Amino acid sequence: MNWQGVFPALTTKFTADEELDLVAFSANLAAQLDAGVDGIILGGSLGEASTLSNDEKDTLVKTAVDYVDGQVPVVLNIAEGATREAVRIAERAAGMGVSGLMLLPPMRYKADERETCTYFKAIAAATDLPIMIYNNPVDYKIEVTLDMFEELVELPTIQAVKESTRDISNVTRLRNRFGDRIKILCGVDTLAMEELVMGADGWVAGLVCAFPRETVAIYRLVKAGRYDEARAIYRWFLPLLELDIHPKLVQYIKLAETAAGLGTEYVRAPRLPLVGSERERILNVINTGLANRPKLPALEELVHVD
């Protein structure tokens, strides 16, 4: 597993009747692969995982694994309230063709450090799949500290972190403490270029669902040391990237996908589609971005090179 590059956190496409829309899902997946992403992540918060049944999650995994056909790794997110359910999912994941796992801390209970580490270790012990820890204390109220990582990296399958603390200097703290033992992927769209410049290995992205080529271009330009070109695209992108750091990020990003021709606005209740002045305000941000899309360098000129 190569925890490097752009990993879209894919949205889950629904019909107007709130059923899975696998045609729209596959079309977006095709756009991501065409843009040159390095992996995909299923079942995250952006994927409305909390509203999906286990059978629906299995269907999404099978659809993605079959469509990708080994071109890039498929990573499954695990976000559960009960350790035994998280373990059950981990035990089945490899047999479904998943290449890696992303783990959130326990849901709906603010576990302490010992409980959180025990939870992660129990899941890791149930599978040989490589694991990325999702560290997002802002939204999930549990921080995975450096001392906790010191304990967790004793397990060889725990290999990466989705860094979402909103503290850019945490990239340097992790690198100073662990060197390259832990791969670091930025999990906050509005801090992505900053963290990549500071040495992050990748980007778990949200607005990539609507703008895959721009996202991949920024990543590859930074890694090629072409900072001025990356900065120009990033400055254009920032008003759109800010849609990722709002409680309605799902609705906002799905509206962006729709405007870009890569999805639909349909969400699953309790979420509701945007209406009225809020929809117009967000659509104005999106349409302004679409009207001023920057010219990108040829992606073949920016192959992913370490």
TrEMBL record:
<protein>
    <submittedName>
        <fullName>Dihydrodipicolinate synthase family protein</fullName>
    </submittedName>
</protein>
<comment type="similarity">
    <text>Belongs to the DapA family.</text>
</comment>
<feature type="active site" description="Schiff-base intermediate with substrate">
    <location>
        <position position="162"/>
    </location>
</feature>
<dbReference type="GO" id="GO:0008840">
    <property type="term" value="F:4-hydroxy-tetrahydrodipicolinate synthase activity"/>
</dbReference>
<dbReference type="InterPro" id="IPR002220">
    <property type="entry name" value="DapA-like"/>
</dbReference>
<dbReference type="Pfam" id="PF00701">
    <property type="entry name" value="DHDPS"/>
</dbReference>
<feature type="active site" description="Proton donor/acceptor">
    <location>
        <position position="134"/>
    </location>
</feature>
<dbReference type="InterPro" id="IPR013785">
    <property type="entry name" value="Aldolase_TIM"/>
</dbReference>
<feature type="binding site">
    <location>
        <position position="204"/>
    </location>
    <ligand>
        <name>pyruvate</name>
    </ligand>
</feature>
<keyword id="KW-0456">Lyase</keyword>
